[in-house]
Amino acid sequence: MLRNYLLIAWKVLLRRKFFTFISLVGISLTLATLLVVTAFVDNIAHPPLPFLKTDRMLFVQTMMAKGGDNVIFSNAGFGFHDKYVRQLPDIEAIAVIGSGIIDAYPSGQKVRMNVSYTEASFWHIMDFEFIEGGGFTEEDVVNVRNVAVISEETRTRFFGNTSALGKMLPIDGKSFRVVGVVKNVSATSFVYSAIWFPITIDFVPEARSEIVQGVGGGYRSIILAKSVNDIPRIKNNFQTMLSRVQIPTPPFTKMYGGATSILESHAMELLSMSDEDEDFGTRNSLALMIGVLVAGALAFMLLPAINLVNLNVSRILERASEIGVRKAFGASRRALVGQFVVENCILTVIGGAIGILLAELFFLWFAWIDFVPHTTFHINYRVVVYAIIMSLVFGLLSGVLPAWKMSRLPIVSSLKGGINV
Question: I want to staple 122 with a disulfide (CB 3.0 to 4.6 A). Which of 95, 137, 360, 402 is the partner?
Fold first, then answer.
């Protein structure tokens, strides 16, 4: 029976080519737009190199400090990460990271560059692809050596296409010896930077003990668990640890936050920034974000679905005589509804396939204009699965009502070609 449905659907699509063309344009553009957004979200949820251990990673990002009527959202001070986060059990490694923006002058031209200050453990936690050399060592950090790891783009800016290993990098009135060159990472990444320095280079004396962000600026940390099974325990231990944090900086008395996965971190920062949010860091912001994205996708599909409903009603009512004959020979409402829903799903799946091609063209254009620096978007198997699901949902949204109206056509009126329902 399904084979017959497919054959009938194909013949029907070819019968009114203009209607089919209009329907496919609406479906493919809608789904292509949704797929572009989906690919962006997928890139955040499943980032490429250097994130190979994301299943064991937790991120301590924005924290909330409160005291009376005073509230601040920021990355915590180095002392918080060093004194409290570093002592959590079940941790294989932790890397504290500071960041900033500096002005550099390669070839005499001013360039603003993102820089990071971090620890030797950072190169163990992250899996950067080194083109030359390697990461700086714990000895480099402890002895405050002027060394640096640079990105491929930074190497090109300062040294052209030649090797940068061992050469001196002039930055902010100092010279840093290049010990490693890494492949460029996406500008959307948590660890995006042009240059990485030992964290001790960034210290001012007061910064070592700061709990809440202060003169030393804010710091983040990346935790690598010993195993995936340790992740829930580390999250709970983090919350227990927060109750023991002592803040010497008035007027703040308590800190809120969480050790979260990469996607949870994005969700928390997007949806949990309220002065009254006592659940900051523990609320399931990820579920809320997924709900918002699904609701937004359905709302975005609603208008073209309504337009497709009108086209489908017109298309179905033109087949009133066919429906009447099938009813006269005993076809049930369920069989008729099933046939027309299948026909509509076939149309939307074809539109989804076209949408995938359009989305890939968008990604090629994004790469050409460098829309997101050092980021390449692709239609991977996960996005294809999302496309199939969205196509079927779109087909059901736009096909059920016309099919139901069709099934209610009276046999006599149908055989006469009537259109009253």
Answer: 95
* 233 and 143 housed in the same domain: yes
| CA 278/CA 342 separation, integer angstroms | 49
The total number of structural domains in the chain stands at 2
Pair (240, 296) in one structural domain: no
**Sheet hosting strand 62-67, strand order edge to edge:** 70-75, 62-67, 254-256
Question: Does residue 67 share a domain with residue 210?
Answer: yes
| Spatial contact of 305 and 345, defined as CB atoms under 8 Å apart | no
Lowest mean pLDDT among 103-112, 113-122, 257-266, 339-348: 339-348
Chain Cα centroid distance, residue 322: 48
Query: Using an 8 Å Cβ cutoff, are 208 and 79 in contact?
Result: yes
Q: What is the pLDDT of residue 90?
A: 92
* Burial degree of 383 (CB within 10 A; 0-12, 13-18, 19+): buried
- Clarify whether residues 249 and 323 are in a common domain: no
